[in-house]
Amino acid sequence: MPIRRLTLAAVALVLFFAAVPTVSAHAQLVRSDPAYGAVLVTPPTAVRLWYSERVDPAFSSATIVAANGATIATPQPASRATDDPTELVLPLSPLAPGTYTVVWRAVSADDGHKTNGTIVFTVGPAPAASQAASGASGVATPTASQGASGATTVGTPFAATPTSLPPGTSPTLPPTSNDVSEEPTLFAVVIRWLELFGVALLIGAVFMGLVALRPLAVRAAPALNGLARMWRRTLRVALLCLGLGVAGTLLLQVATVSDQGMGQVFQPAVLVPLLASRWGILWALRVWCALLLVPLLVPAFWQLRSLPLVGALLVALPLLLSFSLMSHAAALQHGVVLAVATDAVHYAMASLWAGGLAMLLLLLVCTRRLPVEQRTPLTLQLVGMFSRVSVIAVGVLIATGTYSSLTQFTSTGELISTSYGRTLLLKLALAAVAFLLGGYHWLMARPQIATVAGRSGPARRLLDRLRGTIGLESGVAMLVLLAASGLVQTPPPADANMRGMVMAPTAGASSTPVPVVPTATVSTATPTPTASPVPTASPTAPPSATPTPSPFHGSVITGGLEIGLTLDTQAIGERQFTVTVKQSGAPVAADRVRLQVSKLDQELGTTLVELQPQQAGTYQARSPVLSLAGRWQVIVLVRRRGLEDVTASFPIDIP
User: How far is it, in rounded angstroms, from Cα 381 to Cα 348?
Assistant: First the structure.
């Protein structure tokens, strides 16, 4: 029964990490020159992008695109600045007046993760401003389309009434990072887990062989043969899992940097620069360490001699260090040496605890056929040896985990408001369950067995119960490793905060980032189509993006609210977004109204636009986010205190 429950829990955890919108990317855009949304009198000679981490010059890029979607030729491709490894520079030829979009991609040199996004700027008068001065013209034909979520979207003509924000402010966030790897997050989590599980089981097996099985070999204990066979099988499984994980990590990284899938692993143009990068060097270190551990499978090592076992533990140290040098700790701006060292110690103690616990369970399974008079002292010896070390390991785990958390969080509220924080809480909850079970074994189960050692019946029952609860603890420890593998896939709050920096446009100069509220997880309400006095499409009509000449107005009835979106799509450039929120015809006050803007026919990431309240139920912002011709999607998020978030989707074509 415990095994079945643990299996269900593991499946639930895997599905959790597959469903949660995690982002395997950490080189976030900090600032740019020109700034996002800047209007420049003089064309810039270059675009400069600064990131929160060092960028890999081999796989980071930037291109500039005109409003009609044509790529502008540049004197040289984008390259990393010689004096700043966090800066990407794109030289420019002279630009004609107009609106331009810089499409960038950055691969972190620290952890190999990828981000992408856009920067929009205008040379000469802003098109939207010129049109506002001359007055909007044209009447849109009323249209309707059925959104993917089932809400009816209605289009009607309107007269725009632009309202500017205070000078020097911009509600537009830089594009959020997104991983466009074709492989699902589920596969990445499984690969990470295979690596962590293989290392943990390997270290646990070698450690138990050194402190538990070797003393038995010295005394020529009768149970040694069966225990030694189980030990050898465990080493094979550990090395197999580690090998599969290391190979899978290479496939994942190739897919990440090439954008063309895992098949590019056989292409020298991708593989050679990848292996020559910092990520490739650390991956090669991991491979060499794994190869150096293969001699553990040679029969000469089966004699459980101390020198080879100690050597195997020493080889495991750089293997663990390679994980830490690719972790969130390696990407910190300050105190990186201490953070990486702490992370490596955390990995080592976690491997010792989780792997040793799994090995202890397997050894106890081997002893179940022994007579009770042999089984009882052997069990007490194995549990006692492991418990003394596990107490130290758990103490170090708590200390190093606390320090690592302090380096990644800026406030306790981020434990709830970020995916990283919630995943960490899940990991801590599982670890707490395992630690409580360990305390039970040390403080209660072990003394109870010692008191009935001379009685066959009670001793057998207690030994069977101990094996079952240790199995439960070991299973929970494996779930902790699974949670840790999901944690690796999730950007820490420091990165989330970096994505919540606003570039206030200043003509001709880069701007100073202004912090705003970070991105929150969205819970989408199920829209319910309702009648409307204007013409609507059939509720069964497929999703479509309707061409919208001149101004646009759409409304969606969903979640008990009527959400309206108004914008001027007459020309590329800065425009005003106006959102109205009503319920039964009355305006509704919201705590936050945000736009999530993405291009449906091109991978540009998602841009967030924060709207400011103007009057009851009305929210506005100006932004150049719709900077390219093509098909776009604007999702309006309405957040109210104590109520579920409501979203409405508006497909829009920019001619």
Answer: 24
For residue 634, CA distances in Å to 140, 142, 446, 570, 652 come to 18, 18, 62, 16, 7
Six token digits for residue 163: 């309202």
Domain boundaries, the chain: 27-125, 186-493, 546-654
What tokens does 484 get?
């840790």
Q: Which alpha helices (DSSP H) does 211-305 contain, by range?
A: 214-218, 224-258, 268-276, 278-293
Give the confidence band of 207 by pLDDT, cuts at 50, 70, 90: confident
Compute the residue count for the chain: 655
- Phi then psi for 425, rounded to 5 degrees? -60, -40
Q: Give the tens place of pLDDT for each residue, 571-600.
A: 566 788 999 999 988 999 998 899 988 888
Sheet of 98-107, strand order: 38-40, 114-123, 98-107, 61-66, 71-72
The segment with the largest mean pLDDT, out of 72-86, 158-172, 516-530, 635-649, is 72-86
Whose CA is closest to 316, among 288, 337, 338? 288
Enumerate residues 6+ apart whose C-beta is below 8 A from 384. 446
Choose which CATH entry (2.60.40.3340, 3.40.50.2000, 3.40.1280.10, 2.60.270.50) describes domain 546-654.
2.60.40.3340
CA 542 – CA 559 distance, rounded (Å) = 21
The continuous run of DSSP H or E covering 306 comes out as helix 306-324
Phi, psi of 351 (to 5 degrees): -65, -40
Burial degree of 605 (CB within 10 A; 0-12, 13-18, 19+): buried
CATH topology match: 27-125 vs 546-654:
yes
Question: Between 171 and 569, where is the model more confident?
Answer: 569
Residues 6+ apart with CB under 8 A from 423: 17, 20, 483, 486, 487, 490
What single letter denotes the amino acid at residue 564?
A: G
- Assigned CATH class of 27-125: mainly beta
Cβ within 8 Å of residue 95, ≥6 positions away: 43, 44, 72, 123
